[in-house]
Design a protein that fits this description.
The chain has 161 residues and is mainly beta. It has helices at 10-18, 50-53; strands at 7-8, 33-38, 67-68, 79-80, 85-87, 93-97, 101-102, 107-119, 129-144, 147-148, 156-159. Strands 1, 2, 3, 4, 8 and 9 form a 6-stranded antiparallel sheet that branches. The protein has a 3-stranded antiparallel sheet with strand order 5-6-11, with no helix packed on it. Strands 7-10 form a two-stranded antiparallel ribbon. It starts with 6 loop residues before the first strand and ends with a strand.
Amino acid sequence: MAWSNSRIFRSFVEDLLINTGLTTFGGLDADTVKVALYNNTITPDNDVSNTLSAYNASTSQWVTANEVFQAGQWAQAGVALTSQTVNAGTADVVFFDAADTASGSAATLSDVHGCLVYDDTVTSVADRGICYNYFGGANSVTNGTFTVVWNANGIFRITLS
């Protein structure tokens, strides 16, 4: 199989609900949250444990062997989000968003199918995953800027019913 959708990690939501210290006192809008790019050799699974959702965990899919990066353009281990916000201003909706995330201006990246969004601040399980986002197929750039344009609905969105 391979990438087919975007999902929030179930263990992330569970940790929020039972307050296991997933985020620092400031929350996701204050933590360092990074975006690492990945190729199509993985099959993301939102039902994995915190450890298996983590960036470069030894037995997870999110290892550097599957990562797409270029030194000086899109860092290995990802690029930090900016202008992060948690928003609950719309009835029945809570979402996490940030400014679009861009590489340097001379990036050459290929076979990018999606990304892992992870919290780089938390230490209980280092670099644990928040969600993964599928880009709809292979994406690339040659000597240009690679930009992850976050959906108008946010990086992830929870609708209450």
